[in-house]
């Protein structure tokens, strides 16, 4: 008798349940192990800014509530498969059970209650973590304007009169207001260590308010596919001390390259994997011009 | 000004990268091999008369599934290419394909898997089962059904053509504007995508109308709505969704075409267009679309679980209302695909709550399936294995779906690989496992012979393990800030080990796919050893098991009568018999080649529109109209199967069945 014949019925079900159970448990164990191993890179779960921490906490809360349903489903799947397997002659067999009003009430009612709980938390947190909402802080907010270009990020500091490509620096513990638009197909502006993303769209200005609690260099990227050079559209977001930030602004202001509509039009041409660049800003209204560009009749991205 | 009869089609369209040239060569060679074999075995006439021109929904269903399996192979190769590229292309290495080609590959993967594999298998199963389960001999509009299939097949052919001639779209499977506009994607790629979807979409809409009318009007005597098999309910919900949702897709694509070809400004960034409108419209279709795919799968499991538990489905009424509720809710959640667009908190929160509401009926369905096992006799034949892994994977997918539905959480995981892991959990763990469940369950019914249980189990094991290894790392990658659609990334990101692990998982899935292909081939070769003569190999509950395997063209010699749910099961157990009546002449639709003609003409039309050969498009369009007019003007559309022939076929079946019982 071959292995396969012996694997029928009586022996197959325990094997199936044992192996699949082992796999499920292995996967469950693997997750915390990965978390320990890759801790520094798991930006969403180990963030460095208040917004991202709040978003992660909401994730944990909803996850915990969901487990109240998922765990019973898993347990029942295994218990019922084991106990009511066809070869188990000791188990009761009642083929004509069609319904049970109490049971139905439980599994319509319980998910309803849990869903209401999740919905309330979500609604409150959605209001609280509105990306447009300014963050509360005793320090004044810094405004940084962001333009998604093909395929690089341009950061404009209207107050400090500097600009940079694929690099953004700001002081830690100071709220930063990013004003975001695009002079390219839609992108999404995302610094996972600091907080969730928002779309960068031509003809539109979106906002993202973030704050870094810990100084450091964080990876930012475009999260929405925008064409050929998309994979290279990442940047460094550096949260530094206030002094370092001031020093950086000063050095950028002394840069020979200046940014105005003419040089911007050159910069906006398609290019891939651009290096970090710094500019002094000639034209403080540049961002408004870029965001208004598509309002003109016969506008095109070529930037006249 | 000269007019080129080839539009913008030039010789360069045949130049490709090495990997694509290889694919084209393989495609052409296998095409030649298939044509050669068909000619050698003189099968063309059989193919034409018995299959291509048939209006029999069972034949059309098999053809849908055949196309879906072929396209699955292509979509799966795309997936392997992506896994390989992402495993290789790190740091100083840039992988084995260029960024352009990688982008075509992921766009083609999504389009193929959704439109041809998932839709094809769902409509295939509907064609096979709906008439049999409602006790009907045919569908309401057999010719429309044939046209629907041939539009689907011609659209699949057009997508294969895009591999060999020119480029496919490189804008993702939903081609967000303005990237898909003429300014950023001037080539033929997006046009291929548009016309593939237009042709397939119109075919789908026609088929859905057919099935809605079939279910509403052609149920056998006594089968009231609440006595319908639950699979038929799920199909009714699904086709209602198609009828409401697909016109949105057709209109959206039409507007995108006007933007691209006539310089209009519906969705352009400048000129008063609004790209956000495109994203809203495409998801107003796209969200119902995912329920169009998953609802029939819920129906499949609701048929399979009671059969293999030898027990009635728990909470039938509750299951029906859950389906109806999901159908309704699926139309008011589309904004959850773009919470990150910057709508105000109340808007986002409203759509978040609506999305969470869907978890309630879905959870109810899971508990009802579980309690169908309660005090049953659970048999772990291969269809039940797929249900088992569906339950485990779909629960995880559902949980991550609820996470994604909270806007602040979504901001952090949207467009990351977390999202990819979530929807593959639903698409593979849900739709594909559901289709495999249906395939192993109904295969003996429609082929007349069984698959090897041993090979089914090996394939299942590979898929179960491979799926977890291929997709669980993606959740973690999402948490590490890895976005989707990257053809290259840096070493410092720390993603490489997990991408390697995911690639390894894909190889295990490949092993599963190869075992499945071998199993299918082996079952066909050994078919005489594994005949199902009884017509009821699993001790089934619905009417398709009351007829021979494979069912005769007319399905039922006499139309059954229904007093209760699972009538066939009740008949078997209470030893009641359906009233026998004298055999009668049966009127069935004749074969027609017009469906094939319309399909071929649509292929030419689509190809001509892609390459701007407007003269050819005009001619083929007029020819399609002419075909329709010719068909609707014809009168003699039916043929009679004489009572004597019915009697001969039925008694042969009964003799074989009795022989097996003895």
What does this structure look like?
The complex is a heterodimer of chains A (304) and B (662). Chain A is α+β, with helices and mostly antiparallel strands and 304 residues long. Chain A has two domains: 3-88 and 98-128, no CATH class; 142-295, Immunoglobulin-like, CATH 2.60.40. Chain A is 40% helix and 22% strand. Chain A has seven helices and twelve strands. In chain A, the strands form two sheets. Chain A has a seven-stranded mixed beta sheet. In chain A, strands 4-10-9-6-7 form a five-stranded mixed beta sheet. In chain A, α6 links the parallel β11 (258-259) and β12. In chain A, α3 (50-83) runs antiparallel to α4. Chain A is elongated, with a radius of gyration of 27 Å. Chain A starts with a helix and ends in a 12-residue tail after the last helix. The mean pLDDT of chain A is 90. Chain B is mainly α. Among the domains of chain B are: 314-374; 377-538, no CATH class. Chain B has 19 helices and two strands. Chain B has helices spanning 18-40, 44-52, 57-88, 99-133, 142-164, 189-217, 230-262, 275-309, 316-329, 345-373, 382-404, 407-413, 417-447, 453-479, 496-525, 567-574, 594-610, 614-633, 643-661; strands spanning 586-589, 638-641. Chain B has a two-stranded antiparallel ribbon with strand order 1-2. The longest helix of chain B has 35 residues, at 99-133. Chain B starts with 17 loop residues before the first helix and ends with a helix. The mean pLDDT of chain B is 93.
Throw out a few tags for this protein:
heterodimer, A: 304 residues, alpha+beta, Immunoglobulin-like, 2 domains, 7-stranded mixed beta sheet, 5-stranded mixed beta sheet, B: 662 residues, mainly alpha, two-stranded antiparallel ribbon, 2 strands, globular
Brief sketch in words of this structure:
The complex is a heterodimer of chains A (304) and B (662). Chain A is α+β, with helices and mostly antiparallel strands and 304 residues long.
